[in-house]
Every structure is written in structure tokens, then in C-alpha cells.
UniProtKB/TrEMBL annotation:
Annotated source species: Cyanidiococcus yangmingshanensis
Alphabetical GO biological process terms: 'de novo' pyrimidine nucleobase biosynthetic process; 'de novo' UMP biosynthetic process
UniProtKB keywords: Decarboxylase, Glycosyltransferase, Lyase, Multifunctional enzyme, Pyrimidine biosynthesis, Transferase
Name of this chain's protein: Uridine 5'-monophosphate synthase
Keyword Transmembrane helix: no
Covered residues, full protein: 206 to 467 of 470
Record-stated family: In the N-terminal section; belongs to the purine/pyrimidine phosphoribosyltransferase family.
Amino acid sequence: RQPSRIPQELGSESSMSPIRDQLYAISRRKKSILCVAADVESAEELMSIAEDVGPHICVLKLHADIIRDWATETPKRLQEIAARHDFLLFEDRKFADIGSTVVAQFGSGTHRIASWAHITNAHALPGPGVIDGLRQACESSGRMVGLLLVAQMSSKGNLIDGRYTESCLRMARDAFPFCIGFIAQERMDPTGKLFVMAPGVQLEAKGDGLGQQYNTPEHLLKEKGVDFLIVGRGIYAAPEPWQGRTKVQGTILEYPSIEYRE
Ligand code: 5FU
């Protein structure tokens, strides 16, 4: 079985971004382009989803600020599960402030994201200072985190237009290899150096009544050329016939298999 869509263009740039190399290596090993969004409110639920989907995913995406009982050991437990099941941790923080503020938001506070996340993301709106601040926080913490810029959103009526998206592409190129890709709805960088993770994915394209818009995996991968899919409720809140752990496992099998051809 050959992966059909995993980015191949590592070339001479391969060693420039260890996080990106790690992500691609996991993707190849596990034959998966799946990132599961675990938007649950307790640490136990988060761990349970991480254990269930772990064997099938390359990335677990979370919003640490949703977890009501986040504790010092929560990231350690996540890191242990991530290491055991071979996936990366993506904190979907969407930083969007001036450089000096994001230094503190990234490195300090309750969540100390820079100390445990492999990947995080930011809006490009404040300008390159947001990237510089995040990079500085990484340098201070002594660990490199991969940054994704939010170049497009899946939500209805969002204010991002083509010009903004183009500016994101330029900012991301300037910030490579710290910036390794985008949150977007279509392929951004023709060279493939910067990859795209697309949220707003379900097997049936509909919405959620709060502005979320879904596309099918086929559409995003084949028509839009994205590299990785982010699936949340389509997996952990899938309807019958799956229940509990089996629900997650049963659903998840539908996603990675879409990516691969014999
Ligand atoms: F940047 C974005 C975006 O444009 N759309 C999103 O849906 C991020 N997201 C996140 O992806 C959102 O915060 C959720 O964590 C996840 C989608 O979850 P769903 O349950 O698959 O709708």
C-alpha cells in the first residue's frame, strides 16, 4: 500500500524542521493523515479519546482551556500516551496578540503550552510579531514547537479573504522552518514545503447549527489538495451504531482508509 497524499517534498529541506519531519514520518509509518480534535471538558475524557484514537492518528488536537480539571500532570499523561501510540500533540490556541503578550501566553499561565505541545497555531492578523514572540518563547523554553498559521477558516461568514490568505502564505514562507504549515481549506503552497491541515471534516457535508461548515474527506483531499484532516465530532460524537470506545474506534477506521490506495 502506497500513501496517496502524504507530502513527499522533503528534499533538501528535510532536516530544517524536525517537527515536520517527525509528523511526516509518523504519517508514513501509520498510513494516516488524521488529526483528531478532542474537544471534551474533562482530563479523563481527553485521555480516554487519546487512548482510543491513538493507534490511528498522527496528531491529537486539543483546546487545553476547555478542560475544567487541567492539572500539572495532564500534559505529562498526554505526552506518555502520545509517545506510546506515536502521535503529536497540537494545542489549537490560535494566538492573536502582540509579540510580547504571546511570549507570556505561550510559555506561562496555567497551560504552559510551550513546555509540552509539538504543534500550535496563530492568527496572522497582528503581523510577524506574533510569530517572533512565539519563536522567542520556544527558544527560552529550549524546545522547538511547530507553528501553523490560520490562513482560512471553516466557519460560515468568517472575515478572511483572498488577500489575507495570500499575506499568510508570505508570512509563513518568511517564518519557515519555525512555521511549518497552515490551517486552511485548500492547498496553500504549491511547492508542498508548507502543509495544510483542514478542519471542518465529516463524512456527510453539513453544518453544526453554530456556523461550522463541513466538507467530506474526499472533497478536501482530492479537490482541494489538503495534506491532513482534522476531525472532531465526526469521530468522538458519531451516532449509532457505535457506542463508547467502540464508537470512536469504529468511526475512525473510515477516515485513514480514505487516504490510501493499494
Ligand atoms: F481554525 C479552525 C477552523 O477554521 N475551524 C475549526 O473547526 C479550527 N477549527 C477547530 O477544529 C475547532 O476549534 C474544533 O476544535 C475542530 C473542529 O471540530 P469538529 O467537531 O470536527 O467540528
